[in-house]
Write the C-alpha cells for this entry.
Amino acid sequence: MSAAPSAILGIGTAALAGTKIGAVGGPWGMAAGGALGFVYGLYKGIMGNIESQKKGEIRASVDVLSAARTNMAKLSLLARRYPERATYFVWQYNQQLAQVHRAHAQIKIETQGNLNSYIEDGTDILSDFELFLDPQIGTAKIEGDKLFLSLTNSAPISDEEFLYELNLMEFENFPE
C-alpha cells in the first residue's frame, strides 16, 4: 500500500473510532472524538511514511555494499586475467569505493536523530560499513591490495585459472 492511501486509511479509521468513542458525550463528544481521531490518524500516517522511507534508504545502502563486495573481488581477478585493461579496473574499483562511501554517509544520517526509538535504526548495517571501510583490515583495503598485487604481477592467468577462481568466488558468495 502506498504512503498516501495508507495515511488516508489511518485518518479515516481513527476519526471513525473517535466519533464512536465520543458518542457517549453527545454531539460535542462526537466532534471532539472525531477531531482527536483525525489528528491521531494523521500522526500515524505521517510516522508510517517516515518509517517506510527510512527502511527504503537502509535497504538501498545494503544493496550498494553487497554489490561492492562482489564487484571489488572480481576486479582483482579480472586485472590478473586482462592486465592490459588495468587502468579501467582501477577506475571501476574507485567507482565502487565512492558508491560505498556515499551509502555509508547515508546510513550515518539514517541512524542519527530522535526517530530511532520506534524505527529499525540500521546500526548493525552501519557496523558492516565500518568493517568494510576499515583502513587497516577492511574488505575494501584487502580488495584494493589484491588489485594492486594483480597489477604488479607480470604474468596473466589462463582462461582455465580465471574460470576456476571465478567459480570459487561465486561459491563463496552463495547465500546461506
Notes: Helices lie at 3-22, 26-81, 86-110, 123-133, 139-152, 159-172. The chain has a mean pLDDT of 73.
